[in-house]
Amino acid sequence: MSVFTPAEVDYLRGQTMGRLATVGPDDQPHVIPVTFWFNAEEDTVDIGGIAFGEGKKWRDAKHNPKVTFLVDDVIREPRTARAVEIRGTAELHETGGDRINPRFPKFDRRFIRLRPTRIVSWGVEEGGTDARRFNLNARDVG
């Protein structure tokens, strides 16, 4: 059973870009657009991109693995905002990014696997906003 609802999974699979928020050693926030892939086998979001392991986001996540990832958009008619916000723990992987997502460059195989501890979505589910917390080890709703 997934920590994501079927509607959230469909939404994530239909998007190509999100925003990764990290906090640096100086306690300052940093947010940057990144490409991602919903990994159904791991029930995670895998995040990568060009020169991914060389940037501030990688260094920040190495220093503090608590990150937030946001995927959002606006539908024009009827004007509706949709989003999935995922808070969780970043696992840094030195290799494998090119195998899990062809959009992740072959010359930098590093990627972050985000394991959710809290998911908030709006405009995705029928009936409004949905928020859930998870025990990372037990994978249960808390």
- Characterize the largest beta sheet: strand count, sense, and whether it forms a barrel: 6 strands, antiparallel, barrel
Number of domains: 1
SS summary, helix count = 3
Helix coverage percent: 10-25%
Instruction: Indicate the low-confidence ranges by residue numbers.
Output: 138-142
CATH architecture: Roll
Mean pLDDT: 87
Please identify which CATH superfamily we are dealing with. Answer: Electron Transport, Fmn-binding Protein, Chain A
Number of strands: 8
Label the overall shape: globular
> How far apart are the first and last residues' alpha carbons, in Å?
15 Å
Question: What is the name of the CATH class?
Answer: Mainly Beta
H and E order: HEEEHEEHEEE
Please provide a written account of the structure.
The model is unreliable at 138-142 (pLDDT under 50). The longest helix has 8 residues, at 6-13. This protein is mainly β. The chain is built from 3 helices and 8 strands. A 6-stranded antiparallel barrel has the order 1-2-3-6-5-4.
